[in-house]
Design a protein that fits this description.
CATH architecture of the largest domain: Up-down Bundle
Structural class: alpha+beta
Number of domains: 3
Radius of gyration: 21 Å
CATH class of the largest domain: Mainly Alpha
Distance between the termini: 23 Å
CATH topology of the largest domain: Butyryl-CoA Dehydrogenase, subunit A, domain 3
Oligomer: single chain
Number of strands: 8
Order of helices and strands: HHHHHHEEEEEEEEHHHHHH
Strand content: 15-25%
Helix content: 40-55%
Largest sheet: 8 strands, mixed
CATH superfamily of the largest domain: Butyryl-CoA Dehydrogenase, subunit A, domain 3
Length: about 375
């Protein structure tokens, strides 16, 4: 691993973007209930994130971007998650893609320039459609490929400009790689998928590919099946954890306002309960931000801990949201207030993490050598 150190000019650009975060978060919070109720995609929220320069914050310096670090990325996502966790979750894959391109240069230069051009015109969302084993098959057709299959539960599928589809070839000796597909390609259909109780504005749909043609230059990293890129997985795990941190803080924010309507200092029992929630959130935040900084410094030991960190943050934020509902009483369960939405978002977050049993099994395996 190489250490990530943005230049002074890049740091200034990142600081300017971060300074625009409060306005964006307020805008997201104002529309979050509407999108959750209707299950509609938050186009205005994504537009606001784009206009603030946050959607391309991780574009590398050699491509004209500031090259934000993982520590910057988790800070942005945690703040966005405080306004609307769905928008934060939809923003994360694009930030991760640009960061990975800065590290590895996996996308062909011409296709990545096209993505950057689209990003200057408006929001250009990208996501990696992954499944283990791959749910999409690539069939050789002349010089190019034809992709067929169904990738389930893709956040923001209806609005993706590009999809990096992880597929397995049907060759005698199969290979696995990423196939770069335009979201409006012929043969791509969006099929309404599962309806989670929370994060409803993510528009979690299935992507159906029916003999979608991919040019040879858009097939990258074709190789025999292998393990995941640990650095990319660490970025993803901490990014998702950061989104949930925002949910936890949003739940606590509302509860503090609710309980603070009484005596100026609040009831002693409420102070102690809020103190418990605050300590839990501090621990989760320090874990995520600390590991992100270590990954940026090139610490290989940090990479092995991000999966466990995601599990712990998931548990912590869910517990915080549940306790906030209990402390709020009847108001905590009312659709008139956002607390029940925060609880649903926290519970739904686990659908986007690696399953707990797999994380625990991996940790146990490492202990046993």
């Amino acid at each position: 691993m190489t250490r990530t150190v943005p230049s002074p000019d890049a740091r200034a650009a990142i600081a300017d973007a971060l300074a625009r975060l409060p306005r964006v978060v307020d805008l997201l919070a104002a529309r979050a209930e509407e999108h959750d109720r209707d299950g509609t995609f938050p186009y205005q929220g994504i537009e606001a994130v784009h206009e603030a320069g946050l959607l391309t914050l991780t574009v590398g310096p050699r491509h004209g971007g500031p090259g934000a670090t993982l520590a910057d990325t988790v800070q942005v996502l945690a703040r966005l998650g405080r306004g609307d966790a769905s928008v934060a979750l939809l923003t994360a894959p694009t930030l991760l893609l640009h960061a990975e391109q800065a590290r590895t240069g996996a996308w062909p230069a011409g296709l990545y320039r096209r993505l950057l051009t689209e990003s200057r015109r408006g929001p250009a969302l990208v996501d990696t459609l992954r499944a283990d084993p791959p749910a999409v098959t690539a069939h050789r057709d002349g010089e190019g490929w034809l992709l067929s299959g169904r990738q389930a539960d893709c956040p923001g599928a209806e609005a993706l400009a590009w999809m990096a589809v992880r597929a397995r070839t049907d060759e005698p000796q199969p290979r696995v790689g990423l196939f770069l597909v335009r979201g409006d390609s012929a043969g791509v259909e969006i099929d309404p998928g599962s309806e989670l109780i929370g994060l409803r504005a993510c528009a979690l749909h299935d992507v159906v590919l029916d003999r979608v043609r991919v040019n040879p230059e858009a097939a990258v990293r074709l190789a025999p099946p292998s393990g995941p890129d640990r650095t990319a997985e660490s970025w993803r795990e901490l990014a998702l954890a950061a989104v949930l941190l925002g949910v936890g803080r949003a739940a606590q924010d509302w509860l503090v306002r609710r309980l603070g309507r009484g005596a100026p200092a609040g009831a002693p029992c409420h102070r102690a309960a809020l103190g418990e929630l605050e300590c839990s959130l501090i621990g989760a935040e320090e874990l995520v931000h600390g590991l992100a900084a270590r990954v940026d410094r090139g610490d290989p030991a940090a990479l092995e801990r991000t999966g466990a960190a995601g599990l712990l943050v998931n548990r912590t934020v869910t517990a915080v949201a549940r306790e906030a509902v209990v402390l709020a009483g009847q108001d905590g369960l009312s659709r008139r207030h956002p607390l029940e939405r925060h609880l649903r978002d926290a519970l739904s977050g686990r659908a986007h993490f690696t399953a707990e049993d797999r994380v625990l099994d991996a940790v146990g395996r490492s202990l046993l050598g």
